[in-house]
Specification:
28 helices; 45% helix
Length: 672
């Protein structure tokens, strides 16, 4: 997600309360915005020679200048709503002034978005390899996986049943790093995938601007498609459409080719196939038959051609209005199932009824109850939480003997805990505030003892995790999870700045700018001069630099709030030098806290801000692109509707699917 997309300001109208009586449209800039900027902002942003952050507010002469720059508007709203500006050393704005200014800027942003002739669109993109695996599996109704997918961090051993609306109290899960056998599922022999698609910075691996198709990769898809249909395991036993598509009919086999391809191509290309395309594929099969190829072999050949065709590989929106109902069917199925739409979705698309709110809402509910929802759970939460980072974490063995046991590590147990929490919140439709401070969790015996400061071993097999109540609020949620604490530490010490940046990015969807290139890293081991200092004291030099202070004001309180958790997530009250840990701080220049419980209380007080931020992550994943300022009004509406429905997870998913960016209705102006 792009920085402009991640300015996760609070649900402004809701959090800040009703605005004062609106000024007349012609007076608002002259009587409120410009005077406020002149008094409190242009000292650093435009007056004289100072233009910090390339933002020159002094150059703004009217509201029309703001309307021309929605990205600047979004930055201004974020800075004001989160009380980042004016900076601490400057006189603060009066509460009513800040409230009115934010409300008026939001209205100008809405006008700026409405005035544009077109809105952001997801660029044409290919499927990533996870989606390709799922799409091929669904197209052929395979009973096995197509190829291994190590990016799937957790394997379901029969517990995932979303249709029940309930997670079992005890589940058995596996993780590939716990043992190679843990993620080896039945799959097609002789099929090897192309390299894993990388997650975008602050984003996901389904981003349109990352998923191009080079000639070399196109050749890889061609080889891959042939290896799939020619695998010895691609047969009647494992392929659900074998009899209806590949087996030669007893009568008129040549005539059957066209009939069979008609339905097959429609499913593969996610829309009715046109006559010229159907004739071309049919003619290809006939040519193969004329050359002496057996019927089944010829149908294998054409199937291989279909699953490496750009029409199969590429996801794109058609037309000036952001696509039709067929595109919406694909958008919804790739969002929640990571695959092609099924027959009910395509039937509704054919009837032109899918985008009707009531019908679309029912389809969202149906997809959320299907077991293919596991694919969403295998993709979104691990990327949202950036859990891939934990795989490379290796704490220093001398100080963390309990972390290592046998050929596997405690980190793999840690990693499964937040993923199971996510699945439970989704399946049981809990409020998303459980991610901040949950009253339950799923833990293995090892994890239970780990949180108690002990150690435990176990065989590298499917692990039983049981649902346990969380009564100690130092635990619970994803923020204080041992996996997050471990992956945001180095091998020898905690990294408060890294933890603060993780919280700003993941929880508040507002990633900090990268540090200046000439800022040195804090040494892993303190020097003799620093050995009696706390980490807060050792990091003080970073905050003294003017070019660093702005970011540190935001991320330091977040990171130091977690300082009681050591490099592997174990609780500590003192450092190894005997100094007391100092976790206190002030969140958003508004909430003073002394410990992690008070910090969680502060986060919950800002749950509306978190709701909008989390909705931004989810909307970006659903659209396959980073968000931009034009998405901001829709994101406000999504969050407000979710809040009204009790912060429920399924309500948020439904609001995403019914939103204007997802429906692409905002593109109606492109045809004007």
């Amino acid at each position: 997600m792009q920085k402009t997309a991640l300015l996760s300001f609070s649900i402004l109208a809701l959090c800040l309360g009703p605005a004062p009586a609106a000024l007349a449209q012609g007076d608002v800039f002259a009587k409120l915005i410009r005077p406020t900027f002149s008094k409190s902002c242009v000292k650093c942003h435009g007056k004289g020679t100072k233009v910090k952050g390339k933002v020159n507010l002094f150059a703004l002469k009217s509201a029309a200048d703001l309307v021309k720059n929605p990205e600047l508007l979004e930055k201004l709203i974020e800075a004001l709503a989160s009380a980042e500006m004016p900076p601490e050393k400057e006189p603060p704005l009066a509460a009513e002034t800040r409230k009115g200014l934010v409300a008026e800027l939001k209205e100008i942003l809405r006008q700026a978005v409405d005035s544009r002739k077109s809105a952001a669109r997801t660029p044409i993109r290919r499927m990533n390899r996870f989606q390709y695996n799922n799409a091929v599996k669904d197209l052929f109704q395979l009973k096995v996986e197509v190829f291994p997918l190590p990016e799937k961090m957790m394997r379901d051993h029969g517990y995932f049943k979303p249709e029940t609306g309930k997670m079992e109290p005890k589940v058995r899960v596996g993780s590939r790093p716990l043992g190679k056998s843990q993620l080896i599922e039945p799959r097609l022999a002789g099929v090897a995938p192309f390299p894993q698609d990388l997650r975008a910075e602050h984003g996901f691996d389904n981003r349109g601007d990352h998923l191009s198709l080079s000639p070399l990769l196109m050749e890889s898809f061609l080889k891959l498609s042939r290896s799939i249909v020619n695998s010895p395991d691609f047969n009647a036993k494992r392929c659900g459409i074998w009899k209806s598509f590949f087996v030669e009919p007893k009568k008129a086999p040549r005539a059957a080719v066209k009939v069979r391809l008609h339905g097959f191509l429609g499913r593969a290309f996610r829309r009715p196939v046109d006559d010229s395309t159907l004739k071309r594929y049919t003619a290809y099969v006939h040519t193969r038959l004329d050359a002496g190829r057996r019927f089944t072999a010829a149908m294998r050949d054409v199937a291989a051609g279909v699953i490496c065709s750009p029409r199969f590989l590429y996801l794109r929106e058609r037309g000036d209005k952001g696509g039709d109902d067929y595109d919406l069917a694909s958008r919804l199925s790739f969002f929640l199932w990571g695959s092609i739409p099924d027959k009910p979705l395509l039937d509704l698309a054919e009837a032109g009824k899918l985008r009707q709110p009531e019908i679309l809402g029912r389809q969202v509910a149906r997809l959320l109850k299907d077991r293919k929802l596991k694919r969403f759970c295998d993709s979104f939460p691990s990327q949202w939480l950036q859990l891939d980072r934990i795989i490379s974490v290796i704490p220093e063995r001398a100080d963390n003997q309990d972390f290592f046991f046998g050929p596997y590590r405690a980190s793999m147990h840690m990693m499964l805990e937040p993923l199971l929490l996510f699945e439970t919140v989704l399946i049981e439709d809990h409020p998303i505030t459980q991610f901040l401070d949950s009253n339950f969790s799923y833990r293995s015996d090892l994890l239970e003892k780990w949180y108690q400061g002990g150690k435990a071993g176990g065989p590298p097999t499917a692990i039983p995790f049981k649902r346990v109540p969380v009564t100690d609020r130092r635990q619970g949620g994803v923020i204080t999870n041992a996996a997050v604490m471990t992956m945001t530490s180095s091998s020898t010490r905690t990294k408060p700045i890294t933890r603060g940046a993780w919280l700003a990015t993941v929880i508040f969807n507002n990633p900090p700018e990268p540090p200046p290139a000439d800022v040195p890293e804090l040494s892993e081991k303190p020097t003799k001069k620093d050995e009696n200092l706390t980490i807060r004291e050792r990091l003080a030099a970073h905050r003294e630099r003017p070019d660093c202070a702005g970011c540190h004001v935001k991320i330091d309180p977040l990171g130091f709030a977690l300082e009681n958790y050591g490099p592997t997530g174990l609780w500590r009250d003192k450092y190894s030098n005997g100094r007391e840990v100092e976790p206190g701080g002030v969140l958003f220049r508004k909430y003073e806290f002394k410990n992690i419980i008070e910090f969680k209380d502060a986060l919950l007080a800002e749950k509306d801000r978190f709701t909008r931020a989390f909705a931004g992550h989810l909307l970006s994943f659903a659209l396959g692109r980073g968000l931009v300022a034009a998405d901001s009004p829709a994101l406000d509406r999504i969050a407000a509707a979710t809040i009204e429905k009790g912060y429920r997870m399924k309500a948020l998913v439904r609001e995403i699917a019914l939103s204007e960016p997802f429906l692409q209705n905002s593109l109606r102006k492109a045809a004007d």
